[in-house]
Design brief:
InterPro entries: ADH-like_C, ADH-like_N, ADH_Zn_CS, ER, GroES-like_sf, NAD(P)-bd_dom_sf, SDH-like. GO terms for molecular function: oxidoreductase activity, acting on the CH-OH group of donors, NAD or NADP as acceptor; zinc ion binding. This is Enoyl reductase (ER) domain-containing protein. Belongs to the zinc-containing alcohol dehydrogenase family. By secondary structure, the protein is of the alpha/beta class. The protein folds into 2 domains: about 5-165 and about 330-364, Medium-chain alcohol dehydrogenases, catalytic domain (Quinone Oxidoreductase, Chain A, domain 1, Alpha-Beta Complex), CATH 3.90.180.10; about 170-305, NAD(P)-binding Rossmann-like Domain (Rossmann fold). The protein contains 11 helices and 21 strands. The strands form 5 sheets. Strands 4, 8, 9, 12, 13, 20 and 21 form a 7-stranded mixed beta sheet that branches. A 6-stranded parallel beta sheet has the order 16-15-14-17-18-19, with helices on both faces. Helix 4 packs across helix 5 (about 190-205), helix 4 (about 165-175) packs across helix 10 and helix 7 packs across helix 8.
């Protein structure tokens, strides 16, 4: 929550000091005390148990900025999270202390036209965990609106609860692109978001999914997770035409929907070239803020281009997918760390290096 602040340990005798991982500067992350805001009538105080590292967290650590968001003062990091309810406000009826919950990290205003229209993910007043200047959730405890805390069924773990956040991106993308049992899907990029988009597309009924990446290891993971075919590509734009043909061949039929989960000029150009006439390309990743892509040929073939920003109203469906076994996110969690100074540093380094790491998870 945005209102909490750094403290210097002046707490009542015997009272637990709430600690959090503070981003202080480039490559400078420290576990320090974190003052919680007061518990409002509609809030819950949650003890964090599982927090995942997202690419954006690493970006802030390495550059102190992401797109137009700049870290100007110390900020608690983390936004993929789940925990256990410790206390609820007077007006909270659906949760009790001890409930295990997955947490949606964005608080919208609920007053603007976009919120009223149900597109609250686009709210200009959005307060989102670990997007400056709002504090995130890599802490012992946080305070958050109770209506953004979703109770987990017994057969869904807290780690899986934390994975609802990245999975939500894939679910929202599939809704935006109208994935269904008659749509063949291409996924550009086999990183964490590409993989959850693939899993979501399968859960939405896509019969055939091809996934593309530059990395052999990531492609092998995609295959294990159920991709029908994988295609290894290069970063060289001169290979584009040949790669589009190889991708079409791998699909063995028309590509109805392509998801660009990388977001570079080349990946977007590949997606536009590979998608069949009348199909859709959904831009999910944000590798480049500006890109040069062949839109005119796509326009002539009536290929629709849609974008997504985060997600909306996805947690209940994500939890249903996990509970029913339609989606299994457990294989995505490749590395686990505790919540000590050294482990926090090591975890972010592991995530930043990539290699075999897909999702790095803190167990608090």
């Amino acid at each position: 929550m945005g209102k909490g602040g750094m403290s210097h340990g002046n707490t009542d005798e015997g009272k637990e000091v709430n600690m959090a991982a503070w981003l202080l500067g480039i490559n400078d992350i420290k576990i320090l005390p974190f003052n919680l805001p007061p518990l409002g009538a509609h809030d819950a105080r949650i003890r964090m148990k599982a927090v995942g590292i997202c690419g954006s967290d690493v970006h802030y650590l390495k550059a102190m900025k992401l797109a137009d968001f700049i870290v100007k003062e110390p900020m608690v990091i983390g936004h993929e999270c789940a925990g256990i309810i410790e206390e609820v406000g007077a007006e909270v009826k659906h949760l009790l202390p001890g409930d295990r919950v997955a947490i949606e990290p964005g608080i919208s205003c609920w007053r603007c036209n976009l919120c009223k229209d149900g597109r609250y993910n686009l709210c200009p007043e959005m307060k989102f965990f670990a997007t400056p200047p709002i504090h995130g959730s890599l802490a012992n405890q946080i305070v958050h609106p109770a209506d953004l805390c979703f109770k987990l069924p017994e057969n869904v773990s807290l780690e899986e609860g934390a994975m609802c956040e990245p999975l939500s991106v894939g679910v929202h993308a599939c809704r935006r692109a109208n994935v269904g049992p008659e749509t063949n899907v291409l996924v550009m990029g086999a990183g964490p978001i590409g993989l959850v988009t693939m899993l979501a597309a399968r859960a939405f009924g896509s019969p055939r999914i091809v996934i593309v990446d530059v990395d052999d290891h990531r492609l092998s993971v995609a295959k294990e997770l159920g991709a029908n075919q994988t295609v290894k590509v290069s970063t060289n734009s001169n290979d584009l035409r040949d790669e589009v043909e190889r991708i079409k061949e791998a699909m063995g039929g028309g590509i109805d929907i392509s998801f660009d989960c990388a977001g570079f000029s080349k990946t977007m150009s590949t997606a536009l070239g590979a998608t069949c006439s009348g199909g859709k390309v959904c831009l999910v990743g944000m590798g480049h803020t500006e890109m040069t892509v062949p839109l005119a040929p796509a326009a002539v073939r009536e290929v629709d281009v849609v974008g997504i920003f985060r997600y909306k109203n996805t947690w209940p469906l994500c939890i249903e997918f996990l509970q029913s076994g339609k989606i299994d996110v457990k294989p995505l969690i490749t590395h686990r760390f505790g919540f000590s100074q050294k482990e926090v540093e090591d975890a972010f380094e592991t995530s930043a290096l990539g290699g075999t790491a897909i999702k790095v998870m803190f167990n608090l």
